[in-house]
Amino acid sequence: MGEPAGSARPFILLSPALGAITFLLIVPVFFVLVYSFWLRSSVGAEIPGFHLDNWREVIGDAFYRHILFSTLRIGAITTVLCALLGYVPAYFIAMSKTRHRTLLLLLLILPFWISYIIRTMSWINILGVSGAVNQVLMALGLVSEPVQMLYNEATVILGLVHFLLPFMVLNVYVSLDAIDPNLADASRSLGATDFQTFREVTLPLSLPGLAAGGLLCFVLAAGTYITPLVLGGPRDAMFANLVFEAIITQLNWPLGSALSIVLLLVLGSIVTVYNRLVGLGQIAKSFG
Amino acid sequence: MSGWFFIRLYTIGVYLFMFLPVGVVVLLSFNSSQFGSFPMEGLSLRWFVELWNNDAIIRAFRVSLLLGALAAVISTALGVLAALALVRYRFRGKNAITTLLIAPILIPEVVLAVALLLFLRWLSLPRSFVLLLLGHVIFTLPFVLLVVQARLVAIRREYEEAALSLGAGPVQTFFAVTLPLLMPAVFAGMIFAFTVSFDDITGTMFWKPGGVETVPTQIFAMLRNSISPEINALGTVMIAMTVALPVLGMAVARWMAARRG
């Protein structure tokens, strides 16, 4: 099927999109790499050239390494929590035989559409000094003064899990839904218990979806700076906050460029490893 | 069936976790108290009235709507053409090109934002609405491409081949056969792109010119002070919009599919 190979037509169709990606993404990323070797003079002007100063600072300074590790840690904890919280509902919807399956699925996709910043700030209403939890605690007489629960690493992770959970649920659901129900029936008819069937048949077959959801959760969590700004304290900056700080606040473009390249390399290598092991096609299935 | 009972309970718990904070935002937006927090003193619409009279917010809404609409139209046009090429033709390097086209969602958005900003700065172009628009087009393109591609695979080629064999040209075939069949996907892609653009804050904080705010950056700026009841009201409006839009989109897509029979 399809046109004979070698036709120019597909490339004509692709050229607007490829042109946009090339000039607005590929070439600019190359510029970031070049800029990371420039210097910023004390008066704020940039000095072109091949200087390793930014790189020496970014790689050598324990501060940046510390933030990079805590960013990866936050990303990993978020991913594990999303997997633990997300697998069961996805399993429930995929296996349930109720008429309301479509409604449940719709509810599941709904949080995707609710604004990220609104969902993030909504936790201030819950955990803030005059938030719901403190009101309840005070009404019950358990505490006499409001407890400060916000603005730490735990609330950053909480906000990220709340933001990213739908990605996990949807990816796991897609892979569970694609499993032939006859396989589980066959396993049971051969004498396996429900739990054995889950462990030996369903779970292994849903691993690609779990991996796809995990990748999205990890990469999106480790690349954020908004959640730490809203729900974190001054000491909970993540790596992307350093980029934002360098570029927008300090206007130190060369340093911001070097930091961007580090973030790109770290998260990019994770995507590459995933692509080798699972393949990016798994993520595309969620859009079907 | 105690295992299934546990699963059901767990699922209800997760749904509560997802929706409770959002529900509290909606609830508090109707609180007549002058602080944006508990306790509820009474029901009132005063914060929605204040919202309507807040010029900064109305301006931000206008920017967001225009930006989202333009980004959606442009990225859908680019995405549909690219999806056609990827699904309907055989050529070398298809996998590499697909990866390239979905690269904007694979690389961290912060890096995307820095790269585009830096490049335009190097070209001596200041931050502007156009930069914001270009950024949003790049960022929404992969979503449109994935949505349209998934639908296009499901549309049988025989229809197009019939048109071609009856003497229609490729362009005529596209407009008379492929596009009408693809319309629900085009529509879905456009709504998807609009919502992604309307919701974006990560890139927008880098790209927006001074003095220009979109709705998310406006909310972010308002959070700097303290959580005011207006933010809850704005959140409620956003939730109503972003929930109504896909539901509306699905209804239209279904209607279009039903009308075709």
Word description of this protein:
The complex is a heterodimer of chains A (288) and B (261). Chain A has a domain at 54-97 and 153-287: MetI-like fold (Orthogonal Bundle), CATH 1.10.3720. In chain A, a hairpin with a 5-residue loop joins strand 1 and strand 2. The longest helix of chain A has 34 residues, at 62-95. Helices cover 73% and strands 1% of the residues of chain A. In chain A, helix 1 crosses helix 12, helix 3 (62-95) packs across helix 7 and helix 4 packs antiparallel against helix 7. Chain A is built from 13 helices and two strands; from the N terminus they run αββαααααααααααα. Chain A has helices at 9-35, 53-60, 62-95, 101-113, 116-127, 132-139, 153-177, 181-189, 194-222, 226-231, 239-249, 253-277, 281-284, and strands at 39-40, 46-47. Chain B is an all-alpha fold. Chains A and B meet through helix 1, helix 3, helix 4, helix 5 and helix 7 of A and helix 1, helix 3, helix 4, helix 5 and helix 6 of B.
CATH topology (fold) name of the domain at 54-97 and 153-287 in chain A: MetI-like fold
Please bin the fraction of helical residues of chain A: over 70%
**Level of helix content of chain B?**
over 70%
- The topology string of helices and strands of chain A comes to HEEHHHHHHHHHHHH
**Average of pLDDT of chain A:** 89
The CATH H-level superfamily of the domain at 54-97 and 153-287 in chain A is MetI-like
In CATH's first tier, which class of chain B applies?
A: Mainly Alpha
Gap from first CA to last CA of chain A: 22 Å
Main sheet properties of chain B = none
**What's the CATH topology name of chain B?**
MetI-like fold
- Rg of chain A (C-alpha, Å): 24 Å
| Oligomeric description of these chains | heterodimer
End-to-end CA span of chain B: 42 Å
SS content category of chain B: mainly alpha
